[in-house]
Structures are given as C-alpha cells and as structure tokens.
Design brief:
The protein is an alpha+beta fold. It has helices spanning about 10-20, 75-80, 100-105, 115, 120, 150-155, 190-200, 215-220, 235-255, 275, 295-305, 335-350, 360-365, 375-390; strands at about 1-5, 25-30, 45-50, 55-60, 65-70, 85, 125-130, 135-140, 165-170, 175, 180-185, 210, 225-235, 255-260, 280-290, 310-315, 320-330, 355-360. It is globular, with a radius of gyration of 22 Å.
Length: about 400
C-alpha cells in the first residue's frame, strides 16, 4: 500500500489515470473521521490523502458563496468565514478534524440539521476527478443555478466510490446575532416525546431538537435520571428571547422542568452524546425513522440491549428522526452484540425506517451488513458505479451492496 499527497487537481487526475490503467484500488482520504463507516475496502492499494489541497479559493461575501479545496478542514473554513460574519451551516461530528471533501462524501451533519439541512443542501458546485482521471465540473458558483442535471448531488454521500471530490462551491449564511442552547428534563421519554410534538406544532423555529436518554444526558453533565430535550434557537436577539419564553412555556405545560442554558461548546458534543456515554463503546448504529417514532424506538432498542446483557445509550435528532445508539461490550460479548444490532435494525424497519452501522469491529461487520437493504434502488446505484468506475478501483466494496 502507498500513500500519495497530491497538491493539485492535475496531480489527482494523473494518479487516478495510472491507477485505473493498472487496476490498482484507490482510497480517497480527508480527515479520517468516517473511516469506520461501511465495509472495509475489498482491496487495498493507494491511499489518496488530500491534506495538501486545503485552500479557500474564493469567498464572495456579497453572494454568500465560497469555493474551497476538498482537503480544507471544516473548522479552518468556519474560522475564515467568521472573520466576515458568515458561516457554513454544517456542524458534523468531529468538525475540528473533518475536511470539506469528507463531509460531502459522507453527507455528514449534526444537530443543526433540523433547520439548516445536510451537506446536500449547501452544495451548489463541485469539481470531481473520475476513476479514469477525467475531471468533471457540475453546478456553478451562484445560488440560483438551475440549468441541467444536478450532478453535484450524485457525489454527496457516495463515500468516494464514484469519484474524488477536489473542489466545492457552497452557499453560506450570515452569523446569527444571538444563539442559545437550552435543555429541559423529563420523567420519561414519553413525556419528552409529548414536548417535542408540541414544539414542532408551535410557531417556534428551532435550529436543533435533540432527545437524550439518561445515560447520554449524564455524559454531557446533565441529569442521568431523566430524559432530556435539548433545543437550539438563533437569530435576532428579540426573536431568540421570545422563542426562549415560548419554549419554557411548552416545557412546563408538557410536564418538564430543570430548564438550563448550556454552554456553546456543548454543540460539538450533542451528535456524539451516545458514544460519550459508553466508555467502552464497541458498536454504534444510526437508525432513521419517522420523527413521531423516535422515543418509541429508543425505548425498544434499550430494552433489547438490556435483555442481551449489554449497556447502551441513545441520542437523537428528534425533529428529523435520526437515532444514534451506542453499545458497550467485551470481546466475549460478540454474539450478543451481533444479535442486538440485528434486533435494532429490525426495530427500525418495523418503524418504517432503516439502520446502518457507523462503528463496529470487523468481526461484527462480517456478520451484520453495515448497510441496510437498498431495495430496488441498488440496481440503479450499481449501474452508476459501473459507468463512472468500470474497473471498480474507488473504495471497492465499501458502499451499499459491496459497490
């Protein structure tokens, strides 16, 4: 295996062209924060580290757009944009290390996804090097770009299996005048679910709506004996003050109490609260269901884990229906871990959703497919892969259906 650090798009093109000709596998590499997602590559060859391609190429504050190289860390981009009072509305886990290319390839997002969406929603233009070394560009450099096929979205969430992202143009937002993160505790997850329902039916516009079970809440220094609802608001100071007051009223009407304001540093911990709660985390599964089924799924999955003699913790982006479950275990617990992950996936499917493994030992992934069944769409995905990467050199075997 070799590691190559290209310094330009032309370098990436040259490497891929030669790798394709020799049928050598290539693994694109950003910050390495999502390396545990999916199956291990079926073959190893070249690791293409984009760390040298880390520049902010253009920033148009008036147009609220920026063009950046894929190897630029998200935190560095946010710092540069912040100097002009703007930001990229993404807050994925491990944002200090994750790169722009990696965030796009994983379609990563965090708690603010509730209001601002995922990486797919901020991308307006892209430059990609295909498996044969061809350089393609899609989208544009302005927000109002509606002509032609939406090529950029094809590469978002593909985990580097269709091409290597080298540049991206993204749309930005002005920094809010004020932002608050509030937490309220509840006697049970059911009571917490009632508050979430009332919140989503209200006139409030939260930027985040997260639910934590007792263990995940305890990991953030909150009440370990209660379910906790964490909500964010941003905007003009007067708007935030009004929304805060209305939120407190909803909480009290729903039987909650203990409302506290959390420090801003807590934003980074919210998406990984379940992982933080389990010191010896051995597996993490992301389950996506309808928002109305979130707390029901957490309760059911927790019961399954306890029944197998395992410890588990859960956090959820309740407004969008994404639940993260972390399992603790020892090497001798492998059978119980495998059985529990299978039960969690079945529970997610029963709730009308699906589930993927975000983190697990190879021994677990060999027995439980990291990806859920893609159904009929798998045939389309396989045809796209065959067209863009006919020799299968880009992250071979890592994605859905061993693509």
């Amino acid at each position: 295996m070799a590691v190559i650090f290209p310094g330009s798009t032309e370098d990436v093109s040259a490497v891929l062209a030669q790798a394709s000709e020799a049928a050598v596998p290539v693994t694109p590499w950003g910050g390495g924060t999502a390396v545990g997602v999916g199956a291990s590559p079926a073959r190893l060859g070249i690791v293409l580290n984009l760390g040298r391609m880390s520049g902010l190429l253009e920033h148009e504050p008036g147009d609220l757009t920026a063009t950046v190289q894929a190897g630029m860390p998200l935190r560095a981009l946010q710092t540069a944009l912040g100097e002009r009072g703007q930001w990229l509305s993404l807050d994925p886990p491990d944002g200090d290390v994750a790169t722009i290319g990696g965030v796009l390839s994983a379609n990563a997002s965090g708690s603010r996804r509730h209001l601002y969406g995922t990486a797919r929603d901020v991308l307006i233009g892209i430059t990609v090097v295909c498996a044969d070394g061809a350089v393609i560009r899609g989208g544009g450099k302005v927000v109002k770009n509606v002509a032609g096929y939406d090529i950029p979205k094809l590469f978002v969430g593909a985990y580097g299996t269709l091409g290597v992202i080298v540049e991206a143009t993204v749309k930005l937002r002005p920094r809010a005048d004020e932002e608050v993160l509030l937490a309220a505790r509840f006697a049970s997850l059911k009571d917490c679910a009632l508050a979430v329902r009332q919140l989503l039916l209200s006139d409030l516009i939260p930027s985040a709506v997260d639910v934590l079970d007792g263990d995940a809440a305890g990991a953030l220094g909150l009440s370990r004996e209660h379910a906790v609802l964490v909500v964010g608001f941003d905007g003009l100071a007067e708007q935030v003050a009004w929304q805060r007051g209305e939120f407190e009223r909803i909480i009290l009407d729903s039987g909650g109490d203990g409302i506290v304001e959390l420090p801003s540093v807590m934003w980074a911990s919210l998406p990984i609260a379940a992982r933080l709660a389990v010191a010896d985390t051995v597996a993490v599964m992301r389950m996506s269901v309808l928002p109305a089924r979130v707390t029901e799924l957490i309760e059911r999955a927790g019961t399954m884990a306890r029944g197998a003699g395992l410890r588990a913790a859960f956090s959820a982006h309740a407004g969008v229906g994404t639940v993260s479950g972390a399992l603790a275990g020892r090497p001798e617990s492998i059978n119980a871990i495998v059985a529990t992950l299978r039960e969690w996936r079945s529970a997610a499917r029963a709730a009308g959703g699906h589930a993927e493994i975000e983190q697990a030992p190879l021994a677990v992934k060999e027995r439980v497919d990291p990806w859920d069944d893609a159904g009929a769409s798998l045939r389309i995905m396989q045809r796209i892969k065959a067209r863009l990467d006919p020799k299968g050199i880009l992250n071979p075997g890592r994605f859905v259906g061993a693509i």
